[in-house]
Design brief:
198 residues, alpha+beta, 4 helices, globular, DNA-binding
Length: 198
DNA sequence: CACCAGATCCTCT
DNA sequence: GAGGATCTGGTGG
């Protein structure tokens, strides 16, 4: 990378997922593979609450599948959904298993490799969905539980030095069958890489 | 072991 | 906007 990543520390994640979901917009998701970097600017997120949220994977308690949700803030929860993987950022502390689903990014660096991973040539269809992001970045269940605040790992999140404020749109979450109406989805209004507008 | 429910995506109308 | 492909983990017998 030609710029120095500014790794986000754990205190950023130790907050309500509704706040973290919005603050993650514009941050950079960075994947390191064999010395190469894939970089995406986060454009779409969804918050899943630590309690009382029937759509959250913590709703029925801790299982082998979701145990990463019970780690401290700043870890990754990677789970499989049909043929795809999805990635959440764990928020709050281990007794409050909230999380933020990363649903889309703007491709920034390593775009050719993303295209290979996705078998897709069109930039606009590369990373505009949670399964697509994981495929493009080669995020698999092997990364479940990884510490996103550790730059030595294969996956981390950084901020940018001087970012202009961007408009955020709030909507209900997508693809769930319960708790459909809660306004917990956030995206950069002007981004071309978002799963769905409005 | 069988069944079923998904935080999806792609390909058609 | 609908329907199917296709995979994994959780639950109950």
């Amino acid at each position: 990378m030609e710029w120095e990543p500014l790794i986000i520390s754990q205190s950023f994640y130790d907050r309500d997922p509704i706040i973290v979901a919005q603050d993650l917009l514009g941050k950079f998701l960075i994947r390191k593979i064999n010395g190469n970097f894939l970089v995406g600017k986060i454009t779409e997120t969804e918050a899943y609450l630590s309690s009382g949220d029937s759509a959250a994977h913590n709703f029925k308690g801790k299982t082998k599948r979701n145990e990463s949700l019970y780690k401290n803030g700043g870890h990754a929860y990677v789970h499989s959904m049909r043929q795809y993987c999805l990635i959440d950022v764990v928020t709050e502390s281990s007794d409050k298993p909230g999380s933020v689903l990363i649903r889309a990014v703007d491709p920034v660096e390593g775009i050719d490799m993303m295209k290979k991973h996705r078998n897709e040539e069109n930039d606009d269809n590369l990373t505009n969905g949670p399964g697509k992001v994981c495929a493009a970045f080669n995020i698999t269940r092997q990364l479940d539980g990884i510490d996103l605040t550790d730059f030595r790992g294969g996956l981390f999140i950084s901020s940018s030095e001087d970012r202009l404020p961007e408009k955020i749109t709030i909507s209900s979450r997508i693809g769930i069958s319960t708790a459909k109406d809660m306004p917990l989805r956030f995206y950069l209004s002007e981004s071309a890489h978002v799963s769905k507008k409005r």
